[in-house]
Amino acid sequence: MNEKMAEKIFYKNLHDVCELMDNNGVTTDTQLRKYGKKVLGPFFTGVYSQDTIPKKNKANTCFITNVDTNDMPGSHWVAIYFSGKIYHIYDSFGRSSNSLLPIFTKRIKNSRFRFKDSDKDAEQRDSDHFCGQACIAYLLCIQQIGIKASMKI
Prior knowledge:
Blueprint (H helix, E strand, L loop, with lengths): L2 H19 L7 H12 L3 E6 L11 E6 L10 E6 L3 E5 L6 H4 L1 H8 L4 E4 L13 H20 L3
Parallel strand pairs: 1-2, 4-5
Antiparallel strand pairs: 2-3, 3-4
Helix pairs in contact: 1-5, 2-5
């Protein structure tokens, strides 16, 4: 599947998620936990700050993390899918996880696992506030079209 087709599926998912949540703006961890479970089922394991991500994750599961630590108010959501060996990280602004999630990526670098960032093009502008919904839409894409095609988004 090419990037254009994958992005078309992503944007349809994003529209559907925003409609389901009745929200295309700022989201809380409680909202993301509720709708993540509703939309993704047992594939979805939770919502965390980058310093509270569980050290052990089951293969073929996903979660959403905030780039801030637990003692901060939260500023941006990122989606993570764990294949069993690789943590695939999606940021709706297309930024590097090394700069966004320094605590988490350092931990991964010191383990037997690896991490890989999704495509660097942004699906969100600075004036948009739907990063939480984009995370759910992206994780839904993984269920629908697989991780290889989703990494092109």
